[in-house]
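Internal QA ticket QA-208
Title: Verify multi-chain structure generation after dependency bump
Assignee: T.L.

Test input:
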Amino acid sequence: LKTPLKQAATSQLVLTERQPDCQPLTTPPKPKETPPADPWTPTSNLKMLISAASPEIRSREQRRQLSDSSSEVLQTKHCLQEHLLGDEYEKSQPSRKEKSLGLLCHKFLARYPDYPSPSQKSYICLDEVTEELHVERRRIYDIVNVLESLHMVSRLARNRYVWHGRHNLPQTLQALKKVGEENKYIQQIQMIKKREYEHEFDADGERNEEVASSFGSSEQSEMSFVELPGVEFRAASVNGRKYKSLRVMSQKFVMLFLVSTPQIVSLEVAAKILIGEDQLEDLDKSKFKTKIRRLYDIANVLSSLKLIKKVHVTEERGRKPAFKWTGPEVLPNTQDTKLEATSTTCSPPISESIPSKEQCSKALFPSKGKQNFTRHSSLIKLVKSIENDRRKIQSAPTSPVKISASMYLFLTFLLETSFSLFLSQMTAEEMQMKCALSSPEAVPKPEPSQQPALSQPLGVCPASHSSVSPVILPHPQSGVSYAIYLHPSQAHTVTTYSPGFMLQPLPCANVTGIKSNNSKVFNKITTEEGDTQRGPDEPTKSLAAEERPEMKSETSSQRCLKRSQVLPENNLIKRRKSDEESLDTSLTFFPSGYLIPLTHCTHGNKAECSNKEKAGVCSLQHTAYSSPITGVIPMPASELKTVNIPAFHITPLNIMLSPNSIAAAPVLSNSCLSSSSTSSAPNPSSSALNFMLQHIGLIPAGVQVPANPVLQHVPVSSQSENVSHSSGSTNVQEGKVIEFTFYSPINESNFVFSLQPSAPKEPQEPQAVTENFFRTPGGPNTEPSLSANSDGTQRTSQGTLHIPQRKLEVSED
DNA sequence: ACGTCCCGCCAGGGG
DNA sequence: CCCCTGGCGGGACGT
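Actual output:
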């Protein structure tokens, strides 16, 4: 049996012949993607409203007439054609495209409001749907299953679903992201890419080991469905271990997007990961193919939901289909822990015991003693609705604008800060004022006597080195601020990917003298396309326009000033006065080196500790050590003023966080509450961070550093507290961990990432560390691992930093 | 020729 | 036993 041949021949012909009549010449032979025909674009809102108002009535009405919503449009579209032809060849034979799952999904979605009022639940009867949409039942299942995976619908019983709309989406995505992080998908992706790059299998045992350690470490993540409190599966049958494949797959697919930093996932990689997770068996060709096919199904639905969009990733190997996340940025874990969506492993696939509902709920609400009372559904509902309200206000579902805007601000802030440090016009008084304003006691006032800028190179720094060594800088006030100096040569090597940002004033050692217009140089690769409806575009553009190297110093500092005035309470932007010497050149040329500042916990912690809930976290901070780490050179504060490494400029970036803001940030209190969990909280700024790091060259493109909001930063911690499990690999135990903390005043949260050299070398030799930390083209076995922890607990992941650089290009269809 | 993915067989299982 | 579910993959369509 074959798929019935389509009567394409005729219809095709018909269409081609008709077209010229309606629209001369230019009209494409096929109806194609004639936008006006889209039933879901202009009309959809109306339709949604209608259907929202009275779905039943509408459907009945529709049924009576021999046209449904879709064919209505089609008819309209082909109205003329029909006339011309004169015969009633049932509507123009839908081409394959018009039967696509995506289109069907659109039709399906058009029937229900995105945000149904909670009071009146809308139910979905599969029979009705199939009838009205003129599709086989089978197809609807595909759609519904994916929707179910996002908790946009949930099954009540046979044939019966409830429509939730996008209400749950934020939470779902958040949960998925979290689980995705726990599953270490980033590493897996890297692993796959790396292996892929290494030309085929080398049939080595080492490969398997890698895979094993990477994949194996993801525990029993196999067939688990991520649920949300309150949206559990009814109908125990559905809870059965089977029949979740598509749902689970869908979720995992989404996770990949949420976790990876350019939020682009190629089908190939996705398929491999999804397969690899189930069983480490070698790539079965057919299995792979099937997986891909499913992924297409899922992708179609997700596309209809506008969560993803098809793009193409062009690598050396050629053009590969991929999808880009276009859904909302996932908020950090700002929710109450108790309510937080929990990933549950309801059904261990192998185990023969069908998971009882009890088990599920147990997994849903990890009971920690008395927290159980929270489970009461009414309570949950209450808080949930509050949450929803807050979310509405804040940002989420309707417009990602706000988040993006804050991201923009944050990035701007980072850039400006780094630049303005050189350009700083800030007087001592201003600084003092600001310090006093923000947190007089936590942050010691600047030295009354600002030391004059020293201009001699620091003796500590191996000036002879052409490559740069990491440098540690004590904070002038607290004496504990650290910074790392990056090797500039990395900067231009890195294939950067700009996730929609037109940021270019980042280091590029090779490009000197470029004044403006360098945005083109740096942003060849952009996914930004016709997303005109998106808010972020505005700030993005203005940023690109503003952030030019020759930007006026006044402008910069003024803006910084302004910003800090706007948020006087919430953030403290302290800028160290730096010498003017290094200033002038960096105006026109890019600084060739970067000094990444480590914010240190300068405050007395009183603020945090005063908060009763945060007590636990406060204790965490004590696990942090501030001892200088290998290869990092401590410098006396007195020498801070001038770090004049030959041929390089140092851009100190000092972002402080004020205790006040911490206390106010919900994120932090949350991470505090869940301090025991190893879960890492997603942070919207993580992509910003990653972007920055990648751009700078700290980490290779593709690698991402999970960012977590933390209460306490751990500037430098030494040793094995932070070293964890590690599947037998020995390269970690010796590793020192460097942790960075950034604080985003905009998001009112700070986040930490840490670097851990896996193959530490000479402890006292700075150069060695440099090599460990930063990719050294020739250096094998120097693969630091990245990790991030939101708490003081150990959490070291085995990332591979040494990823082959590849041209990555993303293009539209 | 290859990327996409429609179509529907058929097995599993609930009612 | 009927019918809902949904895994699965052949092979058609699109480019």
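Spot checks passed. DSSP finds 29 helices and 14 strands in chain A.
Status: verified.
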